[in-house]
Specification:
Structural class: mainly alpha
Number of helices: 8
Helix content: 40-55%
Shape: elongated
Largest sheet: none
Strand content: under 5%
Radius of gyration: 19 Å
Distance between the termini: 31 Å
Order of helices and strands: HHHHHHHH
C-alpha cells in the first residue's frame, strides 16, 4: 500500500483509524454496511418463523446501524470527531515538526504525550512509533493493519 493511503488510515500517534468503530471508511463501518445488506428481510423471516429471535436480532441490527453510520473521516482530516482522546494535539504537533508520525520526530519520545494518554494507549503509541522509527510505515502497516483497534483493553 502506498504511503498516502496508509496516512489516511493511521493517525499520527499510530492508532489505527482503519479499525476504529467511528471511522467512516474503516473496516467496522464497511463490514456493518455489508452485513445489513445481506441481512435484509431476516427480521421479517424471524417474525414469521422464529419469533423468539426477533428481539435479539433487533438489538444486533441497532448496533450494526450505529457502526454503519460512522461519520469520522480520520484523525488527519478536518472532518474528524476530535478523536476519542480529549485534548489530542498530535496532528498539529506532527505538522509543526514536518513529520507524519511521532516516531519520525527527533524529539520522540516526548513527555507531553505521556500526559495525554492513559497507560494502555501510551504503550500502543510508544510501540507503534518505535516500529515506524526502526522499520518504516510500510512495515508498521503490514504488521498492525489487521489488529483489532480495542484489543489492548481486553487485558
Amino acid at each position: 500500500m502506498e504511503r498516502n493511503e496508509i496516512l489516511d488510515k493511521v493517525a499520527p500517534c499510530t492508532l489505527m483509524c482503519h479499525t476504529c468503530s467511528a471511522y467512516c471508511n474503516g473496516i467496522i463501518c464497511e463490514s456493518s454496511k455489508t452485513l445489513l445488506k445481506y441481512l435484509e428481510g431476516i427480521k421479517e423471516f424471524y417474525e414469521e418463523h422464529i419469533p423468539g429471535a426477533v428481539e435479539s436480532y433487533s438489538n444486533f441490527e441497532g448496533v450494526l446501524r450505529m457502526y454503519s453510520e460512522a461519520d469520522c473521516h480520520g484523525c488527519r482530516s478536518k472532518n474528524h470527531n476530535g478523536c476519542s482522546i480529549e485534548g489530542c494535539f498530535l496532528l498539529e504537533c506532527t505538522k509543526s515538526h514536518n513529520v507524519d508520525f511521532c516516531g519520525e520526530c527527533e524529539e520522540f519520545p516526548c513527555q507531553k504525550v505521556h500526559k495525554l494518554f492513559e497507560e494502555t494507549v501510551y504503550k500502543q503509541w510508544l510501540e507503534g512509533n518505535q516500529q515506524i522509527r526502526d522499520y518504516g510505515i510500510e512495515y508498521f502497516w503490514d504488521k498492525n493493519s489487521e489488529n483489532p483497534h480495542y484489543r489492548p483493553y481486553k487485558g
